[in-house]
Amino acid sequence: xxxxxxxxxxxxxxxxxxxxxxxxxxxxxxxxxxxxxxxxxxxxxxxxxxxxxxxxxxxxxxxxxxxxxxxxxxxxxxxxxxxxxxxxxxxxxxxxxxxxxxxxxxxxxxxxxxxxxxxxxxxxxxxxxxxxxxxxxxxxxxxxxxxxxxxxxxxxxxxxxxxxxxxxxxxxxxxxxxxxxxxxxxxxxxxxxxxxxxxxxxxxxxxxxxxxxxxxxxxxxxxxxxxxxxxxxxxxxxxxxxxxxxxxxxxxxxxxxxxxxxxxxxxxxxxxx
Length: 273
Known about the structure:
Blueprint: H1 13-23, H2 26-35, H3 37-47, H4 56-73, H5 82-101, H6 109-126, H7 134-141, H8 145-159, E1 167-170, E2 175-178, H9 190-207, H10 212-221, H11 232-239, H12 243-259, H13 263-267
Antiparallel strand pairs: 1-2
InterPro entries: RNA_pol_sigma-70_dom, RNA_pol_sigma70, RNA_pol_sigma70_r2, RNA_pol_sigma70_r4, RNA_pol_sigma_r2, RNA_pol_sigma_r3/r4-like, Sigma-70_RNA_pol_init_factors, WH-like_DNA-bd_sf
Keywords: DNA-binding, Sigma factor, Transcription, Transcription regulation
Protein name: Sigma-70 family RNA polymerase sigma factor
């Protein structure tokens, strides 16, 4: 759905807000909205890629509601810039709507705001492909490392809830497996123990094609050293890097493995799943 493009008023924001406040002129208020619709689009674009149930048009509608709130609360007796003032209300309305109705799971406002702070800080470094330690990040946004662990947990399960019935398509052999099929059976046979041993040996050999850091991250992530698999947060602490940076290293390493001719050897094990 496209928003209907209205013609802007020749009057300034100052003239229109004065008309509305002094005379309760609804036409003046509507002209204010049209004149400043660009602020709504700007705020909506910043939120459109947050993996919510909201469409861009939904965010525009929430932004307009926020602008109307800002217009109603604007005090003409104070020396306040109108555009700056209403943009605050536009952005707040969109953020609150996302927090309340944009996800399957609802979190308290302060948790949501901390999640946004962490993501913004991480992205500012990842934009330039730079590493930042979790300790420095925590200092910059004034949270403890324990709080950082909790926030990353929320980010993982809040933004991306996944059904156990999600179907996973494996390569070009038309093999379809549901996510729940990867839940391990506690009854392990001798044959499975031997198979797992050989599988780990073959995986370790393939890992030699990776860089040292990529290799170490995957070994820790999937328990290839005979230990319990570690979370992204735990690996991040070990390397003094953020969870997001470890996730990127893991993703890049797995892409290399998928593109490698050696991964054909791993397909043989699918016959035993």
